Amino acid sequence: MKLLKNKKFRIILIVAVFVIVAILSINRFSGVNIIRNIVTIPVSWIQKGIYNIDQYFTEKRFTRKQYQELLEENKQLRAENEHLREENAAMSFLEDKNRLLRQALALKDIFEGYDIIGSNIMGSDPGNFVYRYKIDIGTRDRVKPDMPVVAANNALYGRVYSATYTTSVIVPIIDENAGISGWISKENGGHVNIKGDIRYKERGLCLIENVSDNVELVVGDVVETSGLGGIYPKGILVGVITEIFYDEITNERFGVLQPYVDFNSISTVFVMMEKTE
Question: Alpha carbon of 34 to those of 26, 38, 39, 248: distances in Å?
């Protein structure tokens, strides 16, 4: 026991043990090697587990970072997309304005005595079984009641019924309150009266009535405004005759007119303002 307390002896003993272990570990079948394996295998499992845990959290951190980057990229893309939408809307607005201007200029070439102002149809105006449409120009644009309203193809749409400062109400030619003096557009055509009729307006059609005996009506004839009546100038296209029939009681001839305007699809119209000296 005294030897164990001797410092030099302890050092010599420790060195001797290490030497013996080193010699014995050379033989892989030795007991020491077996003991070493018993110790090192669990340690390697622990090391491997620690490594896997570290990799897991490293990947998680990397995934969270990627996720944050994707969120930021998505935010930027949404902002760019919104900006592009605004630019496209502005471009579309300018294109619509340019289209209206070109169409208005074409109409001014036909009707030199009129100023032509384009407008958008905002929707129908509520009423009791009447067809009225609201447009986005009014008295500030010099719009007044009874001004003619036409489509881009020089087709008659109707007339201004009333106007506020910023909007106007239009009576289309298929309305029962609409009446037009028409002309059969052919040699020796003749005058006819065109009006809206409750029997036909749901189909977007008009009625031709008060046809003189000397006026020949033929299916396919084109009808335009005659210039009489004080509202519509001569030469605005109204429509095509699609049917002719007789009233056996009054012995009168009538015609059904298909307007050139499609009232269900048209979105822009033009108000004709007669120039004043």
Answer: 12, 6, 9, 125
Helix (H, G, I), strand (E, B) or coil at 176: coil
Containing structural domain, residue 217? 113-274
What is the Cβ-side half-sphere exposure of residue 200, based on CA atoms within 13 angstroms?
Answer: 21
Enter the pTM of the model: 0.62
Per-residue pLDDT of the chain (277 residues; tens, 9 = 90+): 555 555 566 666 665 655 565 555 555 444 444 444 444 555 465 556 556 665 655 555 556 666 677 777 777 877 777 777 776 666 665 566 566 666 666 777 778 888 888 889 988 755 444 568 999 999 999 999 999 999 988 899 999 999 999 999 999 999 988 899 999 998 888 999 999 998 898 899 999 998 888 888 999 999 999 999 889 999 999 999 999 999 888 888 999 999 999 888 888 899 999 887 6
Q: Could you tell me if 106 and 119 lie in one domain?
A: no
Same-domain check for residues 121 and 105 = no
Separation of CA 229 from chain center: 41
Tell me how many domains the chain contains.
2
* Selection from 44, 21, 42 nearest residue 32 by Cα: 21
The SS3 of residue 123 is strand
Neighbours of 105 (CB within 10 A): 10
**Residues 98 and 89: beta-carbon distance below 8 Å:** no
Question: If you search the block for the tokens 């447009």, which residue do you land on?
Answer: 135
Residue 203 φ then ψ, to 5°: -95, 5
